Amino acid sequence: MREVKDITAMSVDERIAYAKANSPLTEEELQMIKEGSALTTDRADQMVENVIGVYFLPYSIAPGFVINGKEMIVPMVGEEPYVTKSTTSGARLAAANGGFTASTTGSFMIGQIQMLNIENPETARLKILEDKQRLIEAANKVDPVLVSFGGGCTDVEVRTIETMTGQMVIIHLIINVCDAMGAQAINAMVEAAAPIAEEITGGKTNLKVLSNYAIYRLARARVCIKKEDLGGEENVDKFVSAYAFAAADPFRAATNNKGVMNGMIPVVVATGNDTRAVESGVHSYAARNGRYSTITIWEKNNNGDLEGMIEVPMAVGTVGGTTKFHPAAQVSLKMMGITKADDLEKVIVSVGLAANLGVLYSLVTVGLHGDFESARK
Ligand code: NAD
């Protein structure tokens, strides 16, 4: 691992030169970011409704990330001071210890079909499962492009649930969305499959829409930091008790997870992805055991070193939505050398873990306010 420069004291132009020397970006692409000229009002007018202009945010870089052995500079777009600096210090600490090891479960998302007025819900459940191939075929017909990339609906799950308005049958289409975030694709597929479900059961469908609780699209990262690099085993113990606090107390878990999102969301924004989709997925997963808890775990290993990990749903794409349409999103992906959604997911969770590491290090040593004040001097 090459020594990573501290770019905090550099001028903007020096940082641009650093990014040019350490990423595949061209002078023109970097100038476009510097000038804030990536998104014109005309282009924005094609993205969303009722446009009258564009809104700018700081575009920063976090150098020194090592993820699965690959070194990279990570783009971060956000308004909060100290976040990039603290995330970078987490990344540097990780890199000195071999970096992050990240993995994913694959891009499988869930599309839901809500069925009402079913007289025999359990019989309906079995009938749908017996005939699930018809739903899969109807769904896959609407997105031949996705199917051509090896994606599409792969399976069907059915549950019956009790609600305040009575019993319902809920169908889940399991859809491989490959490199897309997938929302539009999934919504089209559940709408196409719903009439088949009505035909099979004789019931009526109501909502047909994706779920952001993407439990089959998880991304994971872990890191091991030597106790010497944390100022000794005493600080490792402080990390572990900070984790225990967050695991037991939703008040602390909420702030811990906000700190993790401080790292993740700026990368989601920089790559043109949907922040609300990521946030709803992460927070619903944080409450999966019936109580809101932390999404990062810190443990001490047999050597007295610190082991950290994160596992969350991560529905982001490198195609579709705004990712291909916003020129700055393309620059951000190119900066990291990423073309596949899977690789972007690994980066985002690693950055989240780095943010958590950086902030917890401050909290267990000098304190967040003390570190913030010294960073501003
Ligand atoms: P999309 O429809 O723009 O792009 C996906 C399509 O790209 C696929 O259906 C496929 O036909 C095509 N494609 C080409 N190459 C592909 C590849 N390698 N892998 C996968 N697909 C490929 O976008 P989307 O990803 O379906 O939807 C994302 C958008 O939906 C985002 O803008 C998001 O904000 C929005 N959205 C989100 C929600 C939600 O999260 N609840 C709801 C509605 C809309």
Automatic annotation (TrEMBL):
EC identifiers of the protein: 1.1.1.88
Recorded GO MF terms: hydroxymethylglutaryl-CoA reductase (NADH) activity; hydroxymethylglutaryl-CoA reductase (NADPH) activity
Residues that span the membrane, as ranges: none
Pathway membership: Metabolic intermediate metabolism; (R)-mevalonate degradation; (S)-3-hydroxy-3-methylglutaryl-CoA from (R)-mevalonate: step 1/1
Record has ATP-binding as a keyword: no
PROSITE patterns assigned to the protein according to its UniProt record, in alphabetical order: HMG_COA_REDUCTASE_4
Any GO BP: coenzyme A metabolic process
InterPro entries, per the entry: HMG_CoA_Rdtase, HMG_CoA_Rdtase_bac-typ, HMG_CoA_Rdtase_cat_sf, HMG_CoA_Rdtase_NAD(P)-bd_sf, HMG_CoA_Rdtase_sub-bd_dom_sf
Catalytic activity: (R)-mevalonate + 2 NAD(+) + CoA = (3S)-3-hydroxy-3-methylglutaryl-CoA + 2 NADH + 2 H(+)
SUPFAM superfamilies: NAD-binding domain of HMG-CoA reductase, Substrate-binding domain of HMG-CoA reductase
Source species, domain of life: Bacteria
Keywords: NAD, Oxidoreductase
NCBIfam families associated with the record: HMG_CoA_R_NAD (TIGR00532)
Family: Belongs to the HMG-CoA reductase family.
PANTHER family: 3-HYDROXY-3-METHYLGLUTARYL-COENZYME A REDUCTASE
Protein name: 3-hydroxy-3-methylglutaryl coenzyme A reductase
